[in-house]
Write a structure and sequence with these properties.
Length: 220
Amino acid sequence: MTEPEYRSVTRTQYDEFAQLYYDMFKDSLREHHFDRAMIDAFAELAKGADAGPVADIGCGPGHVTGYLHALGLDVRGIDLSPEMVALAKREHPGIGFATGDMSALDLPDGGLGGVLSRASIIHTPPERIGGVFAEFHRVLAPGGLLSLSFQATDRTDALALPFDHRVAPAWQWSYQRVSDLLADTGFAEVARLVEAPEEDPVRGFHFCHLVMRKPVPENS
């Protein structure tokens, strides 16, 4: 089967910029207080649910994966870019990393207690995002948590709006419509945090953090 162009472009470009990306963002959690707060909350919820290991999907060079590991989670990282995965393995030798596609994860049904995807859905075209959310739902165990963050808009007239990105084509997402789509996929919203556009010194976008849960079936 021929690979979609957006996926091959994203992989190639992140391979090329992997070292630069690592150098720019390796310490970014120190500066992003809301990111850190929501990641901490997700980690505590995932540990409390005790529904299985956690995957950082779209992990890049592994700085967030390493942070989750330091918080005591059994975590692995998955990224589309082989160069990113190579950097992650070099910088975090005690954690498992692998290449993978978030729309077709090589993971069993219901095998994870948590999925974290930070600013990684932005390179998925809007017409394909439903398949990604279905994959996240498939690999999570009942009671498992999804932490999803992304460049966002408060508009609801479109699911996503394209924007210029240094590496690959990208979209900012309507946070309300993303929440609604996740609900249609079978998730229940636990919490959301939306950073004001004034907090983004580069583009002036909202940045949204959503935490969703895959409900435990009744009478289970």
